[in-house]
Amino acid sequence: MITAARADGSWALLDEVDDLVGAFAALAGAAEGFEAFPASIKKAYLW
Predict the structure, then answer these.
(1) Is 12 helix (H, G, I), strand (E, B) or coil?
(2) Is 5 domain-assigned?
(3) Residue 30, number of CB atoms within 10 A of its CB
(4) Is residue 31 part of a domain?
(5) How many domains does the chain have?
(6) Is residue 35, in this structure, part of any structural domain at all?
(7) How far apart are the first and last CA of the chain?
(8) Which of 1, 6, 16, 20 pairs as cysteine with 11 (C-beta 3.0–4.6 A)?
(9) Among residues 34, 46, 41, which one has the least CA distance to residue 10?
(10) What tens digit of pLDDT does each residue of 17-30 get?
């Protein structure tokens, strides 16, 4: 599944989410906590 997503480009669709930046700015420590997750978990949260 991950291989297919990388091949069709959908794996990178959510790499930049503007709404997420605003949400992180509103809650202290949220961005740092999110960045501590592995890439696969971040993708799962955003999907």
Answers:
(1) helix
(2) no
(3) 13
(4) yes
(5) 1
(6) yes
(7) 14
(8) 6
(9) 46
(10) 667 788 888 889 99
